[in-house]
Design a protein that fits this description.
The chain is an alpha/beta fold. The chain has three domains: about 10-65 and about 105-165 and about 285-360, FAD/NAD(P)-binding domain (3-Layer(bba) Sandwich); about 175-285, FAD/NAD(P)-binding domain; about 370-475, Enolase-like, domain 1 (2-Layer Sandwich), CATH 3.30.390. It is built from twelve helices and 22 strands. The strands form five sheets. Strands 1, 2, 3, 4, 5, 6 and 16 form a seven-stranded mixed beta sheet that branches. Strands 17-18-21-20-19-22 form a six-stranded antiparallel beta sheet, sandwiched between helices. Strand 17 (about 365) and strand 18 (about 370-375) form a beta hairpin. The longest helix has 26 residues, at about 105-130. The chain is globular and about 70 Å long. The chain starts with 9 loop residues before the first helix and ends with a strand.
């Protein structure tokens, strides 16, 4: 189930009885540019509050997440995870022969599911009374938009156009695909070189490798996943290398040349040359602002193209707002949903909402093994002046006890030494994204290590490790 496939809250339906209409001066009270997660949520909640709402989308309903992001990527990750499941099942008495994989079947079924979700998003908008414009929108002036052949005006405008993958800025970079393209490949590549060190890079390394490609990941730094806990990143590095993924750190792609055979020679900055069937750039994302004509509305952008906003998601033009990836805060779907909902409630619901706390946002990386994280890393806590106790556990999940092999699970809890408050939890291993969601509630609520200690564990589970660690592994400073 996607986050938008949920009913509005009780407060949404209650406040719909007090509509907030703009004057007849404008066609709409609220117009949203972009039908991704943040835009769809904000528009339908605003409509539930009684506003007259329009939305423009020129590509696909559901935005990046539903179409070329978290949803199809998770489906591909599920497919990739079956490789270990098949191997593990033998230890439990299963014998299913030699498994085979068909890329075309996976992509066809993925496409069918995405089409279903597109329809759900369109229905959410239609059922909420939002008027849909199936084209791209651009500013004519601060209150006016051109959408295809239509010209509309709005009292309030929301920019929720998200981001786009960054192309590889090297000679021959046009030969490299980006993450959007990976979901539409006609065949599984025999080999792939992935350039990048963020979560998209390591997730696609997992997907391609486990489905049968020969994978090389190159990153210009000495360890990927910058900003994540270093122990967790190191554990993933060790596991990926053990599984047979080639990791090339402290080097970068210098140029790409297509050969007569149809594959690619990738020249590296360290002088080496890699030959591969596919090159993928996973070097970051840029805000999708190029087609908006922001200058005509007077909307300012930062040097990196993001749109700065205040605590009420206002741009420098007060009636023009922005949420989601385009504001450069936390580029996660649930964050865009929360931002869009907050904005609709405060603009049209007459509500005073507490500002979002960006310091306690849980997230996951669907690598192999997966990562779950919330709050401060060890390094961040020390940088903020905390004296910390670090609790750490490394173990093999029970699932692998009969089959052997499997990946180690690592769990870390960062605790403020003076207050006993949990500052962060960081994990890598089997099922950790599912485990972390519940513990994230505790961290957001301000739980202490003593609260964890007096919580009875569910036995036997991996999750119980988080409430049974009694002595710190070490303390700093």
């Amino acid at each position: 189930m996607t986050a938008e496939n949920l009913p509005a809250s009780k407060t949404d339906s209650k406040s719909a009885s007090t509509p907030a209409r703009a004057s007849a001066k404008y066609d709409f009270d609220y117009f949203v540019i972009g039908a991704g997660s943040g835009g769809v949520r904000s528009s339908r909640i605003a409509a539930a509050h009684g506003a007259k709402v329009g939305i423009a989308e020129g590509r696909f309903y559901g935005g990046t997440c539903v179409n070329v992001g978290c949803v199809p990527k998770k489906l591909l990750a599920y497919a990739a995870d079956f490789r270990l499941d098949f191997e593990t099942s033998a230890g439990y008495g299963w014998s299913a022969g030699t498994p085979s994989f068909n890329w075309k079947t996976l992509i066809a079924n993925k496409d069918k599911e995405i089409k279903r979700l597109n329809g759900i998003y369109e229905s959410l908008l239609t059922n909420a009374g939002v008027k849909i414009f199936n084209d791209y929108a651009a500013f004519v002036d601060p209150h006016t938009l051109k959408i295809g052949q239509d010209i509309v005006t709005a009292k309030h405008i929301l920019i929720a156009t998200g981001g786009k993958p960054r192309a590889l800025p090297v000679k021959g970079g046009e030969h490299a695909i980006v993450s959007d393209d990976a979901f539409y490949l006609p065949d599984l590549p025999k080999s792939v070189v992935i350039c990048g060190g963020g979560y998209i890079a390591v997730e696609f390394a997992h997907i391609f490798h486990n489905l049968g490609s020969d994978v090389t990941l190159v990153y210009r730094g000495d360890l990927f996943l910058r900003g994540f806990d270093r122990d967790i990143a190191q554990s993933l590095k060790d596991t990926m290398a053990k599984k047979g993924i080639t990791l090339r750190f402290n080097t970068d792609i210098d140029s790409i040349t297509k050969t007569a055979a149809g594959d690619y020679d990738v020249a590296m900055t360290d002088g080496s040359v890699l030959n591969t069937a596919l090159v993928m750039a996973a070097i970051g994302r840029d805000p999708a602002v190029d087609a908006l004509d922001l200058a005509k509305a007077g909307v300012a952008t930062a040097p990196n193209g993001t749109i700065p906003v205040n605590g009420q998601y206002q741009t420098n033009v007060p009636h023009i707002h922005a949420v989601g990836d385009i504001i450069g805060r936390v580029a996660l779907t649930p964050v865009a949903l929360a931002e869009g909902h907050f904005l609709a409630d405060t603009l049209f619901g007459g509500m005073t909402r507490k500002a979002l706390d960006y310091s306690t946002i849980p997230s996951a990386v669907f690598s192999d093994p997966a990562i779950g994280t919330i709050g401060m890393t060890e390094e961040q806590a020390l940088a903020k002046g905390h004296s910390i106790d670090v609790y750490k556990s490394t173990f093999s999940p029970m699932k692998y006890s009969l089959a052997g092999g499997g990946d180690k699970t690592v769990m870390k809890i960062i605790v403020d030494h003076k207050t006993d408050k949990i500052l962060g939890i960081h994990m890598i291993g089997l099922d950790v994204p599912e485990i972390l969601q519940g513990f994230a509630v505790a961290v957001v609520a301000g739980a202490t290590k003593a609260d964890f200690d007096r919580t009875i564990g569910i036995h036997p589970t991996s999750a119980e490790e988080l409430v049974t660690m009694r002595k710190p592994a070490y303390s700093k400073p």
